[in-house]
Structure formats: C-alpha cells, structure tokens
Amino acid sequence: MSRLLRRRYNYLPPSVEVDHVVIGAGVVGLAVAERLVKAFHGKSTFVVERNGQAGQETSSRNSEVIHAGLYYPVQSLKSRLCIRGRQLMYARCEASGIPHRKTQKLVIASAADEVAYLRGLEKKSADLAKLGVGPVPLQWLDGDKVRELEPDVSSSVVGALLSPETGIVDSHTLMESMENNIEENEGQVVCGTKVVRIDRVGRKDGKRGDGSEERWVVQTVTDDGSGGEGTRDAVEAKCVINAAGLNAHHVVNQILPEKEQKTLWYGKGSYFSYRGPGVSNVQRLLYPCPSSTTLGTLGTHLTMNLDNEIRFGPDVEWLPIPEVEGEQEMDFWMRSLQVSEGSLEESVKSVQKYLPGVVASGFAPDYVGIRPKLAPEGAPAEDFSITHPQPGFISLLGIESPGLTSSLAIAEYVEAMVRKEVWGLGLGRGKSVSEAGGNMDGWA
Fold first, then answer.
1. Backbone torsions φ then ψ of 318, nearest 5 degrees
2. Of 93, 85, 101, which Cα lies nearest the Cα of 134?
3. Sign of torsion, CA 17 21 23 27?
4. pLDDT digits (tens, 9 = 90+) for 260-294
5. Which end of the chain, C or N, has fewer beta carbons within 10 A?
6. Is 258 exposed, middle or buried (0-12, 13-18, 19+ CB in 10 A)?
7. CB 178 within 8 A of CB 379
8. How far, rounded to the nearest angstrom, does the alpha carbon of residue 154 sit from its chain's CA centroid?
9. What is the three-class DSSP state of 311?
C-alpha cells in the first residue's frame, strides 16, 4: 500500500517545522507524546490521528485489563515492559484519579494435563524476579481452594494460579488524561488527519543543528467533514515515532527498501456481554489455561468492567488479507467489526468448561477487537517490535496485548531512545530493541 500512496500523493514541501511527530493517537501514541512533551521542554511535539477522536481502534476494543506479566518469555520485551508498565499504570491511576481496580485473576486448570503448564508459569515468575526483570507474584491453589474463592467454578477444575497484581482500568479516562497532559504541555493532538506520505530530506553528511542534517517530511490529508479528503499539508520533523497500530507497517514501509518491507496479520476477537445465571459469585477475572489451539490469544476469558458487568472474550479469528495491485489492502479489517455469528457457540462451550452454570441465552454480541500480529496463523507468537530503522525514525509494530498495560513503559523506553539516538550522539539504524521469538514453552 505504501507504493500506491506514493504514486497517488506527490511530494509536498513542508509548511511548518516541529521536533517530534507521533503518528497514531491510541494509548501507546498518546503515552509516547505525553512523555516527550514532559521530557523535552522547548521542543515541539505534534500527534497525528486519522480518526475523529483519539483511541478509536485497538485501544478502545480490548478487555481493559492491567496484566501482571506472567505469560511471556523471561527475556522478552513484553515481559519487561508489561511488568514495568503495570507498576507505572497503578501509580498513574492513583496519582491522577483514573478509575481502576486490582481485581486479581485466576488462571484455571480444568484438567490434570493443564497443571504442568501453570506450574511452568509459576516457575517463570520466580525466574523473572531472580533475573531482575520484575516481580510477578503468583500463588498455586488446588481445586477446593479455587472453589472456596470462586464458588461458581466447575467441580472439574483441579487448580489455578492466583495473580494478585492483575486489575482493570478505565482506558478512555486514561487516554483523556494523556491527551489533556499533552496539550497542557504545549503539544498538539490533531484528529481526523491521516498520514499519506513520508520523505527524507536534507544531506546525509549534514551537520547537526545547522539545518543541513536529514529530516522527515510527513504529508497529511485532513478529513473534509463528510468522509472525503480535504486539505493536504506537510510538516517537517527531526524525529518521527510510528505508533499507528493496525496500519503501522504501511507507515514504516514508506521509508524501507523493498526487501525490508513489513507485514502484519490480523486477529479478530469477538466479545460477548453476559446477563444470566452461573456468575453471581464471581469476584475475580477468570482465564482458562492457554492451549495450542489458542496460541496467539489467552482463550475466552471472563472479565468485568468497573460497574461489575460481566463479559466473555475474545476468541481469535484470523482474517484473510486481500490485496490491491500486489499490496495488502489498507483498512480491510474495518469490514469485520461485527461479532462473528459462529463465535457464540464456540465461546459458550469454552466458558462452560470452567463456569458450567452459564447459559447460551445469557450471551449477547458486544464488540470486536482487531489485534495486529507479527506472525501468521499457526506460527509462534512474536514479541513487540520497537526499531530505529533510519536516523530519527522510531517504529513500533505488533503492539497488541499487553499494549495497554505496557503503554507507559513503552513511552519511557521510546523517550530514552529519542534522548540518546536522536538528540544525543547515536544515529541508530536498523537496531531492534527486541525481536524475541517463542513457542508454547515461552508464550501463552
């Protein structure tokens, strides 16, 4: 799609200069921009969001869970940033009055052959602490203790891991807080504006600070208010941070050579609200033990919002990717934002394994979340990808769960990269902060 965009939109000279451009105003983009405006006083930060409001895609279509960090490989960026992000998130919520609750979570073994996997997670939590990655407290409970805490759980459940640090957060209030902080610190969030072209200008041998060094020209198109294209503009930036989420690969492909072009795959997850029997005693989040059939997701789990309304999901449905002139079609996933008809029956069956009292008539389609995946269906899950492929261009790919939990830690990490590699001495090219792979021994 990047080639098609470049053919459609010719180069446009910039009309304004800024220091930082953040592409995407989801929770991660907002967190990064908020960090930049506070860390670099006197430098300008400009956030571009294609939707009419911030946080309208992955950030508003998830479980709103603050994850403890127990599922990911010990040395992965997901582990590191989830644990650090969880700590920052609770502190931020307390300091800013953002609604949240430490609900705790049970990861349930419904059969004896699932116990070994959960025991593996328990060992991993000890390894995380031993290696200094961070604390992930877990407690093993036998089946009787599980039912003592959660009487609605099935008599077939043989045990569970209790995660006391798991919680929930009002993600919309969190993002509003971030957006307000950006603007109060002289940053700017511009919505209804999409990035259509990115060009590198200046001299590679230019001297830093005298205007001859390389910079980025980011071209945008603003919505005309009726769904069509309005004004074209271009801004020149010293540093670009790609936090475009579901379209992040299209953004970074604008600056990458053909052989280095990136691909994302898309996992659709359907959520169901629930009003019915079988959950009246539930106090904690309930997650099934992940299995090989749920690789890439944590299974159809029970979560709740701050009003104690129960919902189940997500499942995972891999979306086929259509092409346009040999390139992945942009935004095709928008046609898949309705709960899939076939998801209900499978979700009910999955839930009844650990909550046998729930009934199908209590389930109602709620919403769909689309998750950006760095690996296709059937492949081992991938770590977050945070790279600096060109001087002054930092790219975030595959920021799915635990992206919400990790958002403040991702921002902290990106700020350190910008400080060292953009405003410091390092130029940074092609460096991946993390590209850890994994399998079911390391990933949920």
1. -80, 125
2. 85
3. negative
4. 999 999 999 999 999 999 999 999 999 999 865 44
5. N
6. exposed
7. no
8. 32
9. strand
